[in-house]
């Protein structure tokens, strides 16, 4: 799930940094705005990984045992796999080494403090009060590749057969987080409102045949965590406030090319169609 596009903060600040001595750039430490629980779980002193990909506004880090998380600029949303920095004066290069020592993450010439006090740990509501009308139009497939399986997936969710839904959705679509996985993440997130189901949901997420990044997002969705606007949407649905739901949905829809809208579709599908949750069906 790619975070919302942001403008790389180059301009005069970046130019000044480029002109400064390398020793100054390496000594400067940027503070974290928020640190996802998945990031804190992944890194510790002695962590060694590499930059897996760089995009406008951040980069992905790959570590041991398929560890993956994103480092993002200050305009990005908090999330379980997001280290949001107060600023990003410079982006590293792909394949640059990433290390953690003394609570400081270093990649290229960028150093960010991993402050546990900035931990982002959202909670899910216990129940949703919004009726089907409030979700109208949200539970529609976004990616044309999902159209062929959407009726079947809807039937799976209606029966509570999440394993069948996962088999149809996993890895379907293009990108680091295929749209089918984003839909599945939304379904898992709603199901995770029942803490008793999270163990089974986690097994389902870890077994998904998809990219390592998608599996990581699915795993955290199964534990009840997603990106910030998804939680804002569920909180609004818990309050039964369709206007607030609409605002949250518009924010979420702006994430990535299709990721945010696919996540909305999964959340709405589960919220309107799911009976008693039985992920091991």
Tell me what the structure shows:
Helix content is 41%, strand content 15%. A nine-stranded mixed β-sheet has the order 8-7-6-2-3-4-5-1-9. The N terminus and C terminus are likely disordered. Helix 6 runs antiparallel to helix 7, helix 8 packs antiparallel against helix 9 and helix 10 runs antiparallel to helix 11. With 281 residues, the chain is of the alpha+beta class. A hairpin with a 5-residue loop joins strand 3 and strand 4.
Attribute tags:
disordered C terminus; nine-stranded mixed β-sheet; 9 strands; 2 domains; 12 helices; single chain
What structural class do helix, strand and pairing data support?
Answer: alpha+beta
Count of strand segments: 9
Largest β sheet strand count, sense and barrel closure: 9 strands, mixed
Approximate shape: globular
Order of helices and strands: HHEHEEEEEEEEHHHHHHHHH
Q: What is the strand content?
A: 5-15%
Arithmetic mean pLDDT: 88
